[in-house]
Amino acid sequence: MIETGSASSSLTEVFHTKHGSVQQCDKSHQWLIEFAGKSAKFDYRCLLKLKKAVYSIDIERALLDTAAVPDVEIIFLCACEHCYVLSVAEVIALKELLQGTFVMLELNHLITDCLNRLVY
Amino acid sequence: MKDLIRVRSLISAEIEAVLNQQIKKEAYSSSIYLSMASWCDRNGFDGSADYFFKQAEEERHHQMKLYKYVLDMGGTAISPEITNIKIEYNSFREVFEDALDQEVAITQSFKNIAAKCHKEQDFVTMEFLNWFLKEQREEEYKARRALELFEVIGEEGTGRWQIDKHVGSIKYDSEA
């Protein structure tokens, strides 16, 4: 994990791909997602909602669907100010970004847990 | 980097998910017992109907206990949707056979959650689960004893009437 930005912003990069990045702000307890040309801050609950919404998209169905309908997915999160309108390729990219993010958060949790046990 | 997920919730996403599944199973159990109470009442087995009404309340209590725990630990407790509740039974005995099957399934489910807690070293949830594991001893004991009444008393003559009278008096008072 790479510390970025000034001390006041205190953003730590959690994960990035060539399509976007996720950074964590320890002060505000939020995550900054840079993806599809926009920056959006998510708190814990909204991040989980975004994960659930993206993971529940049936990508295989969307790719095989030959119906003459727009090839976009609208990701709207309840009680969250952000909304994404993504193509199937972007959905795959966002899913990859979130999967990596949650693996890194889990890894951070495991390491913190081990270190805390040594200290306390 | 702060462990923000840990700050928000004591339990992991996986433990939260299995606890929510258990909440649904307890709610299903409660509904099934209500349905059994209804069948017993409709068929003149008042003692058994009371027994199953009490069981339904107990399962609801278990559901709420799990529900509160998930919320207290910082998780999201999900109110479950319950469908496909059996309404009709072929016999008085079948009701009790199903009740025992239900309790065995619940015990197995708690064992699976306990195994996950051990794997994750989630000793806090494990300690919470101990109450349910002990409770399942009583639940399975009562369901098994009720079914055994069919062997001990027999269903012939006034057998079913006697079974119905005795079901409510089954008690588990082991201190072990």
From TrEMBL, chain A:
What protein am I looking at? Answer: Uncharacterized protein
Tell me which species this is from.
Hufsiella ginkgonis
UniProtKB/TrEMBL annotation, chain B:
Its annotated compartments are: Cytoplasm
Task: Give a Pfam family name.
Answer: Ferritin
A single cellular component GO annotation = cytoplasm
- Is-annotated flag, keyword DNA damage? no
Q: What class of enzyme is it?
A: oxidoreductase
Sorted alphabetically, which SUPFAM superfamilies does this protein's record hold?
A: Ferritin-like
Q: Give the EC number(s) under which this enzyme is classified.
A: 1.16.3.2
Q: What is this enzyme's catalytic activity, as reactions? A: 4 Fe(2+) + O2 + 6 H2O = 4 iron(III) oxide-hydroxide + 12 H(+)
Q: Name one GO molecular function term.
A: ferrous iron binding
Keyword field contains Metal-binding: yes
* Biological process per Gene Ontology, one example term: iron ion transport
Q: Which domain of life is it from?
A: Bacteria
Annotated Ferritin-like diiron domain residues: 9-154
Instruction: Cite the entry's keywords alphabetically.
Output: Cytoplasm, Iron, Iron storage, Metal-binding, Oxidoreductase
Q: Which residues are listed for Fe cation binding in this entry?
A: E26, E59, H62, E103, Q136
The primary location reported for this protein is: cytoplasm
Protein family (similarity comment): Belongs to the ferritin family. Prokaryotic subfamily.
User: PANTHER family of this UniProt entry?
Assistant: BACTERIAL NON-HEME FERRITIN, FERRITIN
Name-wise, this protein is Ferritin
